[in-house]
């Protein structure tokens, strides 16, 4: 599996650290309520198919990326700098 | 007052020659990381140009004393201070070596998962990548030479990995 880092270009998967669902970029407001915060902190879907995850280019430029990929085909569709993702 | 003995990161370990390849230590006078604040990149680049003769190069490139060193950060060989950036003295934090000789790419190909051949990785090109298990910065400095930077605490590991690869390549003749 290879990820196309927007800074470094296409790199081997071993250079990256996997964090988890990119939902953590969408932090609820302070007064969003217990349910929203419960979802944000604890509840994750476990899809077979399309996912949108945070990866860290640890063995490279050290940027956080949002990677869109498919867990069934292992295809990587896109990698975007997390700081440039609309929230 | 105690008189302390300063040791370089690769003191006692280099130079090392196996076959056609030689590794020597590079000891920069100072290393300063420069991470421009939002909206200050242009001004920081101009300030650096005035101070060290080179502005901020593009991603994956080195220009004179200034090397791209990762997302939003550049490493300057020398002691500088500029406004509008997070500036940190990192002089003793890094081990820097030069590896040089005919076929040096064959040695690095055993360790680095990036294509470093001269046709695609030219003088002044920079790769933030891995060498075996180490995070490194690789810069091509000439037709048959590269500069490799890793964390100072990993200098012995870096040299061990290089030595094994150099022996492997030399053994193949
Ligand atoms: Zn990268």
TrEMBL record, chain A:
GO biological process: tetrahydrofolate metabolic process
GO molecular function terms noted in the UniProt entry: sarcosine oxidase activity
Pfam entry (one): SoxD
InterPro entries: SoxD, SoxD_sf
Highest taxon in the source lineage: Bacteria
Protein name per Swiss-Prot or TrEMBL: Sarcosine oxidase subunit delta
UniProtKB/TrEMBL annotation, chain B:
Cited InterPro entries: TrmE/GcvT-like
Lineage top rank: taxon: Bacteria
Gene3D superfamilies: Probable tRNA modification gtpase trme, domain 1
Protein name: Sarcosine oxidase subunit gamma
Source organism (scientific name): Yoonia litorea
């Amino acid at each position: 599996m290879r990820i196309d880092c927007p800074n470094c270009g296409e790199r081997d998967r071993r250079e990256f650290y996997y964090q988890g669902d990119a939902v953590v970029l969408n932090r609820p407001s302070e007064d969003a309520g217990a349910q929203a915060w419960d979802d944000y902190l604890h509840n994750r879907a476990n899809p077979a198919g399309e996912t949108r995850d945070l990866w860290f280019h640890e063995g490279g430029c050290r940027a956080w990326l949002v990677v869109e990929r498919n867990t069934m085909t292992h295809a990587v569709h896109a990698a975007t700098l997390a700081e440039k993702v609309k929230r | 007052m105690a008189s302390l003995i300063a040791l370089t990161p690769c003191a006692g370990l280099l130079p090392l020659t196996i076959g056609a390849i030689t590794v020597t230590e590079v000891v920069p006078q100072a290393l300063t990381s420069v991470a421009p604040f939002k909206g200050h990149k242009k001004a920081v680049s101009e300030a650096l140009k005035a101070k060290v003769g080179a502005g901020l190069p593009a991603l994956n490139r080195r220009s004179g004393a200034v090397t791209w060193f990762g997302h939003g950060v550049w490493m300057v060989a020398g002691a500088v201070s500029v406004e509008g950036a997070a500036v940190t003295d990192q002089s003793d934090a890094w081990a820097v070596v030069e590896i040089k000789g005919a076929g040096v790419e064959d040695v690095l190909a055993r360790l680095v998962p990036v294509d470093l051949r001269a046709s695609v990785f030219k003088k002044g090109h920079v790769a933030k990548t891995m060498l075996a298990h180490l995070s490194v910065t690789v810069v091509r400095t000439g037709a048959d030479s590269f500069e490799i930077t890793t964390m100072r605490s990993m200098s012995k590991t870096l040299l061990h990995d290089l030595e094994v690869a150099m022996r492997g390549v030399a053994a193949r003749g």
